[in-house]
TrEMBL record:
Enzyme Commission code: 2.4.1.227
InterPro entries for this protein: GlcNAc_MurG (IPR006009), Glyco_trans_28_C (IPR007235), GlycoTrans_28_N (IPR004276)
Gene name of the encoded protein: murG
MF terms in GO: undecaprenyldiphospho-muramoylpentapeptide beta-N-acetylglucosaminyltransferase activity
Domain of life: Bacteria
Main location: membrane
Subcellular location: Cell membrane
Protein name: UDP-N-acetylglucosamine--N-acetylmuramyl-(pentapeptide) pyrophosphoryl-undecaprenol N-acetylglucosamine transferase
Pathway, per record: Cell wall biogenesis; peptidoglycan biosynthesis
């Protein structure tokens, strides 16, 4: 745990995030935006993420709290998780009181629960409580916290499971700067060369390794000859995927991890992947068409709802995993890759959904809520909300 600030220091804004990149990347983007405006930032995270020793959070205070998710486990493990959450909540309350935090911004998932519950327990003089929801369905942790949030930032114009009367603002999902910069890069339909990007989350997805190479073998030879494939695959699957493409004579780059995601996304003519909130935000900010295969085990089918928003806008196509077979994918690929105008139309529709300034919109929301709760520690927070942050969800 980091040392606490001296008496009289500016009241910090606490970012509550941990676990997966889908929660942590937008948290980092908001931290950068707020720090650039002169705010002091502190991080509350979980033991899985650990203390961050680089980036924006390394410049401020970090507090690692106990806590774990309780969904989908046996009773004994759920009981242990509940105890850890309770301990984390009490620790967070103590730290927030001593920090005299102005606001706590949570990004969903169970790492955000102890800080936000701890803030709630401070009563009348508690910090502002702000949630960010990255999916088209309110996540389980956010659903439990939403009833006492001062504001909820959403990434989609329609979000299911929001409580009646919730104060919501459409900000979009903050992404990395390199991804946001793609919004101004035009989409060029495929010509002699077709670049296909297959990604499946931070560790790849076996279903893509099983289905995509088989589907490619079923395409007409003339179409295969134009393909250039970049595919994320688990380490144990990479060699067999690579071998299939080599046999077909298709140039392919296969890896469990790609550091240059922005470059790959900017070059792609079509993307195949999951439909997590961060993935959809990256696709729409970049304006790239996609075939989306929602994760089938998500309790609330949030990825299905995310993908449906893309389909409704004409920005992509959804194939449910039971229907994601080599024959069905081959048929879809042959149709799309033979129709550049359809791909270009979907790319334009995707770009129309993008909000590359989401981090600034979210920072505007935080400052706007602080403005409505006057605080002499924030004399520069009097700027009114911009038009972008007054869009509300229904």
């Amino acid at each position: 745990m980091s040392t606490l600030p001296p008496s009289g220091a500016p009241r910090p804004i606490v970012i509550a995030a941990g676990g997966t990149g889908g929660h942590f990347i937008p948290a980092e983007a908001l931290a950068h935006a707020l720090a650039a405006r002169g705010h002091t930032i502190a991080l509350m995270t979980d033991q899985r993420a650990g203390a961050r020793d680089h980036g924006i959070f390394a410049q401020g205070q970090q507090f690692v709290l106990p806590g774990a998710g309780i969904a989908g486990h046996g009773l004994a493990r759920a009981a242990r998780a509940a105890v850890a959450l309770a301990r984390g909540t009490l620790q967070a309350r103590t730290i927030l009181r001593r920090l005299d935090a102005a606001a706590v911004v949570g990004f969903g998932g169970y790492p955000s629960v102890p800080p936000l519950l701890g803030a709630r327990l401070l009563g009348r003089h508690r910090p502002l409580i702000i949630l960010h929801e990255g999916n088209a369905v309110l996540g389980q942790a956010n659903a439990q916290l939403a009833r006492f949030a001062d504001g909820i930032a959403t990434s989609f114009s329609q979000v299911a499971r929001l409580p009646t009367g919730a104060r919501t603002t459409l900000t979009g999902m903050p992404v990395r700067d390199a991804i946001a910069a793609l919004h101004d890069q035009p989409y060029t339909p495929p010509g002699n060369e077709i670049r296909l990007l297959v990604w499946g989350g931070s560790l790849g997805a076996r279903v893509f390794s099983d289905v995509v190479p088989d589907a490619i073998t079923r395409l007409p030879a003339a179409l295969r000859a134009r393909l250039r494939i970049t595919q994320q695959a688990r380490a144990e699957d990479a060699e067999r995927v690579r071998a299939t493409y080599a046999t077909l004579g298709i140039p392919a780059e296969i890896s469990p991890f790609f550091a240059n995601v922005a470059d790959l996304l900017g070059a792609a003519h079509l993307v195949i992947g999951r439909a997590g909130g961060s993935s959809v935000a990256e696709l729409t900010d970049a304006g790239r068409p996609a075939i989306l295969v929602p994760l089938p085990i998500a309790a609330s089918d949030e990825q299905g709802a995310n993908a449906a928003s893309m389909v409704t806008a004409g920005a992509g196509w959804m194939i449910r995993q039971p229907d994601f077979t080599a024959p069905s994918l081959a048929a879809r690929l042959e149709s799309l890759l033979s129709d550049p105008a359809t791909l270009a139309g979907a790319a334009a529709a995707a770009r129309s959904l993008g909000r590359p300034d989401a981090a600034e919109r979210l920072a505007d929301l935080v400052e706007g809520l602080l403005h409505h709760r006057p605080d002499p520690a924030y004399p520069t927070a009097a700027a009114t909300l911009t038009a972008a942050t007054t869009e509300t969800t229904s």
